[in-house]
Model the fold of this input.
Amino acid sequence: MTIGCAKALIAQGRIRPDDETVLCVTGNGLKTTDALAGRYAPEDAIEPRLAAFEKFMGRAMAVSAVS
Done:
């Protein structure tokens, strides 16, 4: 629901596309794992630090841009 609400607020112009926005997704993931099982290779855990997340996302976005 959080992502859907954010998309609606962007569509309404209440969140500008160039705004830096943080969304808190608080689900535990238990409902998602079955839907995703076998579709993606498991990722290695990353250190719980912003720099580690940014490094991981930078690599993921680079791969996505090439695909």
About this structure: The first helix runs from residue 2 to 11. The chain has a mean pLDDT of 84.
